Amino acid sequence: MSILSKKSLLKTAIVMLLLICVSSASFAFEKGASNSENEHKNEKKQQCYVGLTVGQKFHPLHDLVNKLLSASAGCKLEDFSIEIENMAPTSVDEGIPNLVLMTNGYYHFNNSSLFTPYIGFGVGLGQLSRFINSDTKDDFIKAYQGKFGLSYRSTSSTEISFGYKFLGLLKNTPKVKQRQDYDRYHSHSHIVEIGF
């Protein structure tokens, strides 16, 4: 593992530890914006949140050992939310992105129960590392993802989510296209995830 990979993994670990501390201190808060005509009926709630997710890839099959860790921060207004998400795999292999930064949007199908289905889509950039003569070269490629799942509100400030994620990488960079090891198995992943 090169020094650059160690530094990026260290930065990701520090960010995740920081997010765990912030979320355990109940970072979520609510702001109410009321309408003067009907204050109680038209009250809008805005929640800011942080989240941690652990994902298990189940396709491609040769990558079942590799887990995907992600940390996110965002805001939710009524049924919609937007967030920034940073993803990193637990092991770094050539041809697999070692860091992905996404901007995601979600729609939450709110109902009167504690279980809320959601659907989302995101776009961003992935960092793909190549090892050439014990030196690391990084390529940045466009990434996209689609997500759906179910979240369970365990307390007033904590939600646990279970979901599916399709993560795709657009291999339109000339350097990436020429690589022998970057094939259709590395261009997309199917991931089952759990988070809070």
TrEMBL record:
- ATP-binding in keyword set: no
Q: Which UniProt keywords apply?
A: Signal
Q: Does the keyword Signal apply?
A: yes
Question: What InterPro entries does its record include?
Answer: Msp4_OMP-like, OMP/PagP_B-barrel
Domain Msp4/OMP-like spans what residues? 94-173
Q: Record's superkingdom?
A: Eukaryota
Xref: Pfam families: Surface_Ag_2
State the signal peptide span.
1-28
Name of protein: Outer membrane protein/outer membrane enzyme PagP, beta-barrel,Surface antigen msp4
